[in-house]
Design goal:
It is built from no helices and eleven strands. By secondary structure, the protein is mostly beta strands. The strands form two sheets. Strands 2, 4, 5, 6, 9, 10 and 11 form a seven-stranded mixed beta sheet that branches. It is 0% helix and 48% strand.
C-alpha cells in the first residue's frame, strides 16, 4: 500500500524553525517528484515547494523563498522541508504529495499529484 506520512509539525514562536519530514512506504520515491502544500483555515490548499525525483530541481512559492528549503534523501525514502524565520501566516496543515516523474523538474499544481499524506499541523504563535 502506497503511503506518505508527514511528521515534525508543532507549535513554534515567530522567527523559529521547524523541519518537516515526509516518509514513503510501499513504494520508492526515486521516481517521484515531491511537493509540499499547505492549507490554512478557510483557505485553499496552496503549493509551498517541490523537488524533482533526482533532487536537482526545486521550486518555491514566493511567500517562502529564502526561508524554506526542500531536500530529499532517497536512500531513506524521505523528503524534508526546513522552515526558518517562521511567521504567523505560515500557520497551516502541511501536506506532502507525490507524482511519478523522472524529468529534471517539478510542478506545484495540485492536480499533478496522485499520492497525498494525511498532513501535519504547524502553528506559529507567540
Amino acid at each position: 500500500q502506497l503511503q506518505l506520512v508527514e511528521s515534525g509539525g508543532g507549535l513554534v514562536q515567530p522567527g523559529g524553525s521547524l523541519r518537516l519530514s515526509c516518509a514513503a512506504s510501499g513504494f520508492t520515491l526515486d521516481y517521484y517528484a515531491i511537493g509540499w502544500f499547505r492549507q490554512a483555515p478557510g483557505k485553499e490548499r496552496e503549493g509551498v515547494s517541490c523537488i524533482s525525483s533526482s533532487g536537482g530541481s526545486t521550486n518555491y512559492a514566493d511567500s517562502v523563498k529564502g526561508r524554506f528549503t526542500i531536500s530529499r534523501d532517497n536512500a531513506k525514502n524521505t523528503v524534508y522541508l526546513q522552515m526558518n524565520s517562521l511567521k504567523p501566516e505560515d500557520t497551516a496543515i502541511y501536506y506532502c504529495a507525490a507524482y511519478r516523474n523522472t524529468l529534471p523538474m517539478c510542478m506545484m499544481s495540485r492536480g499533478q499529484y496522485n499520492y497525498w499524506g494525511q498532513g501535519t499541523q504547524v502553528i506559529v504563535s507567540s
